[in-house]
Amino acid sequence: MDLTIDVTDADNQSTVWLSGEIDAYTAPQLKEALVPLTTSEGHQVIVDLEDVGYMDSTGLGIFISALKSAKEHNSSIRLKNLQDRVLRLFQITGLDDIFTIDTAIWGGNK
Predict the structure, then answer these.
(1) How far apart are CA 8 and CA 15, in angstroms?
(2) Please, are residues 35 and 63 in contact by the beta-carbon 8 Å criterion?
(3) Helix-then-strand count for the chain, H and E
(4) pLDDT (tens digit, 9 = 90+) per residue, 11-68?
(5) Is 45 exposed, middle or buried (0-12, 13-18, 19+ CB in 10 A)?
């Protein structure tokens, strides 16, 4: 399956809507779209993962790269609407303690 990436920009914020699967095949496409958004100082990046049903460790690596870039550039990244399967990946790896995650499915803010 492919990955669809849609980005909208408003003021000092970008919202990224992802749809499909994030794996070794689609991760380079995600990295190319996501990481540059984190390089503007004070920029907020919101990633909506509602339509992502599968993600592997390659995808986690891309999000870690984006978070590292955000911290280096005084910007931020927030994940929202993670499906249970994807959220579990963040929880199992302990990354739910490092990322800001908002999700209606999870029912809370992190």
Answers:
(1) 5
(2) no
(3) 3, 6
(4) 899 999 999 999 999 999 999 999 999 999 999 999 999 999 999 999 999 999 999 9
(5) buried
Rounded CA-CA distance 18/2 in Å is 10
Helix (H/G/I), strand (E/B), else coil: 15: strand
Q: Residue 93 phi/psi, 5° resolution?
A: -90, -5
Residue 52, both tokens: 């992502």
Compare 96 and 105 and report the one with higher pLDDT.
96
Q: Which domains does the chain have, with CATH numbers?
A: 3-109 (3.30.750.24)
- Calculate the alpha carbon distances from 85 to 21, 36, 105 in Å: 12, 27, 11
